[in-house]
Prior knowledge:
By secondary structure, the chain is of the alpha/beta class. It has one domain (about 1-330): Metal-dependent hydrolases (TIM Barrel, Alpha-Beta Barrel). It is about 50% helix and about 15% strand. The protein contains 17 helices and eight strands. Strands 1-2-3-4-5-6-7-8 form an eight-stranded parallel beta sheet. Helix 5 (about 70-85) packs parallel to helix 7, helix 8 (about 140-150) runs parallel beside helix 9 and helix 16 (about 295-305) packs antiparallel against helix 17. The two termini are about 15 Å apart. The structure holds hypoxanthine and zinc ion. Zinc ion binds near residues 16, 190 and 213.
Amino acid sequence: MDKFIERLPKVELHCHIEGTLEPELMFKIGKRNGIELPFNSVDEVKAAYDFTNLQSFLDIYYQGTNVLLHEEDFYEMTAAYLTRIKKQNVRHTEIFFDPQTHTGRGVPFETLIKGITRALRESDISSKLILCFLRHLSAAEAMKTLEEALPYKKWITAVGLDSSEKDNPPEKFKEVFDRAREEGFLAVAHAGEEGSADYIWQALKLLNACRIDHGVRCIEDPKLVQHLKSRHIPLTVCPLSNVKLCLFKEMKDHNIKELFDAGLLVTINSDDPAYFGGYIEENFKAVAAALSLTKEQIYQIARNGIEASFLSKDEKQELFNEIDHYLYSQV
Ligand code: HPA
Ligand code: ZN
């Protein structure tokens, strides 16, 4: 099964570019920029990655981003991620970035977007960018960020919503998302990770999200499951993340198979691979092993990733052909 997963053509739809910053690169960039980290070694950093919930992770994740100052830093981080996923046979990736994490420290929007997009342009992996608003900050700050992004609109496909979910419901950002859609952006949102199923309803009804990031708590509301199923609304599930952040005790307790069996358009993604113990391939492998998935089920989940992407009909068809050809070559 591991070999099957390694060679399977894959699409990633939920990866925060700041969450791909490996400790080694964090130290290298930090040293170059004269930024002190509160850790003495890579091993010390890794030992700190012992999270109890989403907030305990976010505190460390935002700290790690402090080393990123110059265009070159954003370029290097993005290029490193693309090099990694190239080896994992990822054909297309839709990447989140958190501009407020950087503009809040005085890094200009232009600096970070230029670094990220230069790396994306140089890669032969196709990609889309999704600008995430930090939901623990105000709607006014999100609106200001959207306005800062407008000159770079052609590089950004969608807007999203991330950071601390509890007590920061999607409804807080309704106006921002209305404006973003008027400007031509698609909308996605993290919902139903730690927040309740009601936050998923809000993301769909108030923000017009066409894809739900995580969404695993939809299972608590059968009507919502039926709605997601009948409208083919994808869930970008991140299994290793969910176990690391204690949504599920162990991988064998994860509900992804239940969601899949309910007929939902479930995909597998890495979220913050440098923090959660693996990239997309490791996520596929962990789920397949813990939940005894068949090759056909793994193929179907990878196929869902193509289906749920923001690629054009023709681009999707090309990838469907490739993955179908791969499956037939294996049986
Ligand atoms: N949830 C919310 N915010 C995030 C995450 C996540 O999994 N990763 C990075 N920011
Ligand atoms: Zn996420």
